[in-house]
UniProtKB/TrEMBL annotation:
<keyword id="KW-0813">Transport</keyword>
<protein>
    <recommendedName>
        <fullName>cytochrome-c oxidase</fullName>
        <ecNumber>7.1.1.9</ecNumber>
    </recommendedName>
</protein>
<comment type="similarity">
    <text>Belongs to the cytochrome c oxidase subunit 2 family.</text>
</comment>
<dbReference type="GO" id="GO:0016020">
    <property type="term" value="C:membrane"/>
</dbReference>
<dbReference type="InterPro" id="IPR045187">
    <property type="entry name" value="CcO_II"/>
</dbReference>
<dbReference type="Pfam" id="PF00116">
    <property type="entry name" value="COX2"/>
</dbReference>
<dbReference type="InterPro" id="IPR008972">
    <property type="entry name" value="Cupredoxin"/>
</dbReference>
<dbReference type="InterPro" id="IPR036909">
    <property type="entry name" value="Cyt_c-like_dom_sf"/>
</dbReference>
<dbReference type="Pfam" id="PF00034">
    <property type="entry name" value="Cytochrom_C"/>
</dbReference>
<feature type="domain" description="Cytochrome c">
    <location>
        <begin position="384"/>
        <end position="477"/>
    </location>
</feature>
<keyword id="KW-1278">Translocase</keyword>
<keyword id="KW-0349">Heme</keyword>
<dbReference type="GO" id="GO:0020037">
    <property type="term" value="F:heme binding"/>
</dbReference>
<keyword id="KW-0186">Copper</keyword>
<keyword id="KW-0249">Electron transport</keyword>
<feature type="transmembrane region" description="Helical">
    <location>
        <begin position="83"/>
        <end position="104"/>
    </location>
</feature>
<feature type="domain" description="Cytochrome oxidase subunit II copper A binding">
    <location>
        <begin position="112"/>
        <end position="254"/>
    </location>
</feature>
Length: 490
């Protein structure tokens, strides 16, 4: 008896909870109505089944209670009951799924006057692109992606030059204008989800998915990644601000176009090309097998290589020129130098990257003409190094866990970290200086800051990258920390 009453009370409480719940959110986008209606249909259908099944249980508990000597009847086949159950559940499931098809087809049938917004995902951050004056997005391809072109836009496509790039986690949209959202991922599956807009779709590497909606209410909405994409997934968040057209236009004008980012990022001076070559040689691991100082290694050393004639394994010889170097990077086994094992893996680099590596090898060439000044270490003043460090922090994903604005993340914020004294998990304290930060990057588990989980994977950047990262972290130090550091130095 008590059990039956509890079951009935559960039903009544659930229904009352739904009817009396105080949450009645105001629609914020055009697709709100249809998507919420679909969800409501599903709620009603599953609600009816929930009530029916729970009440049936209560009745069964009452009617078939245990009596002395009573036995349950065994009824293995009941055609009539089975037929009814199949019909009722089929209709119920169809009624839950069919409206979704209608709503989905509307979700992806974009009106002609829709504005375009491209969302680019990578572990663990968002970036956004708008078409420029011409109203069209330029072509993109993953092969163009590098540190100066994070969107992978085709530098030769005139349509893409005026595209507006938003390289951070906050995007804005104009009020009351339909927007077509194009979704692209650079690495793994992500999912672009703006709950309050009722918009959500997977981002699949190698394809462009899309949907549309019209924001109808100004405000700041949260953007979430809704597909598990690695340790930083939970922190892959952003914001979508919907505002009046005027304010939006003003904001959009303040964002850089693709052409602008290209000219500021890559003034292809000889120095910067060489710098890029060095960075690549380290990041790709070339330096592990190719020395740059003439010492012996697994592959031919680069010093004095360019312009030399090499004996090949098949007995022929070749002049080491640009074409040969490029071929050897793209297809290392094509023409092997005698005396070296065929162990190099194939690298697929774009023209820019190939050019930078070849320029570097050239600069180490036999006839060392004008490269002395640039060979005297390219890492310029601190500012430049810090910028490099910022790029690295972005590409390595550090910023998914370490904020630079003082907000709390999975790891300690970098804002004001350098020079501070931090308390470790074992109760001891340590000053966050170069040595400590280096150790924390290379071996994060060694000294954990109190209050943080030991979840950071070890990174093995080159010395130069490590210095760039530290320069960036230093640049985020508090003014007074800087001062206290400067004084003892004097
Ligand atoms: Cu990106 Cu989860």
């Amino acid at each position: 008896m008590a059990m039956a009453i509890i079951l009935v009370l559960i039903v009544i409480a659930s229904v009352l909870f739904h009817l009396l719940a105080p949450w009645h959110a105001a629609p914020a986008a055009s697709n709100w109505g249809s998507i919420d209606t679909t969800l409501f249909i599903t709620l009603i259908i599953s609600g009816i089944f929930f009530i029916a099944i729970t009440v049936f249980m209560a009745v069964a508990v009452m009617r078939f209670r245990h009596k002395e000597g009573a036995r349950a009847a065994y009824q293995p086949e009941n055609k009539k009951l089975e037929t009814w159950l199949i019909i009722v559940t089929s209709v119920g499931i169809a009624a839950m799924l069919a409206p979704g098809l209608v709503v989905y087809s509307d979700f992806v049938r974009v009106p002609n006057n829709a504005y375009e917004l491209e969302v680019v995902a990578q572990q663990w951050q968002w970036a956004f692109r708008f078409p420029g004056q011409d109203g069209k997005l330029g072509k993109s391809d993953i092969k163009f992606v590098d540190s100066s072109n994070p969107f992978g836009l085709d530098p030769k496509d005139p349509v893409g030059q005026d595209d507006v790039l938003v390289i951070n986690n906050e995007v804005r949209l104009p009020l009351d204008r339909p927007v077509k959202v194009l979704l692209r991922s650079k690495d793994v599956l992500h999912d672009f989800y703006v709950p309050q807009m009722r918009s959500k779709m997977d981002m699949v590497p190698g394809m462009v998915s899309y949907f549309w909606f019209t924001p109808t209410k100004t405000g700041k909405y949260e953007v979430l990644c809704a597909e598990y994409c690695g340790v930083g997934h939970y922190n892959m968040r952003g914001h979508m601000i919907v505002e009046e057209q005027d304010a939006f236009d003003q904001w959009l004008n303040s964002q850089p176009t693709f052409a602008q980012t290209l000219t500021t990022a890559a003034k292809p001076s000889r120095d910067s090309v060489l710098k890029k070559g060095r960075l690549l040689a380290e990041n790709l691991g070339c330096s592990a097998c190719h020395s740059q100082d003439g010492s012996a290694s697994l592959g031919p050393g680069w010093k004095g290589l360019y312009g030399r004639t090499e004996q090949l394994a098949d007995g022929t010889s070749v002049l080491v020129d640009e074409a040969y170097l490029k071929e050897s990077i793209l297809d290392p086994k094509a023409r092997l130098v005698q005396g070296y094992p065929p162990v190099m893996v194939t690298y697929t680099l774009n023209d820019d990257e190939l050019g930078a590596l070849v320029a570097l090898i050239k600069s180490l060439g036999a006839a060392q003409q004008d490269n002395e000044p640039s060979a005297s270490e390219a890492s310029g003043p601190g500012d430049d190094l810090a910028t490099q460090g910022q790029q690295l922090a972005q590409s390595l994903g550090c910023l998914a866990c370490h904020s630079v604005d003082g907000s709390k993340g999975v790891g300690p914020s970098w804002q004001g970290l350098y020079g501070e004294t931090v308390t470790l998990a074992d109760g001891s304290t340590i000053k966050a200086d170069e040595g400590y930060i280096k150790e924390s990057v290379l071996n994060p588990g060694a000294k954990i800051v109190k209050g943080y989980a030991a979840v950071m994977p070890a990174f093995t950047p080159s010395d130069k990258d490590l210095n760039a990262l530290i320069a960036f972290i230093k640049s985020k130090a508090n003014a007074d920390a800087d001062a206290s550091k400067a004084q003892p130095g004097k």
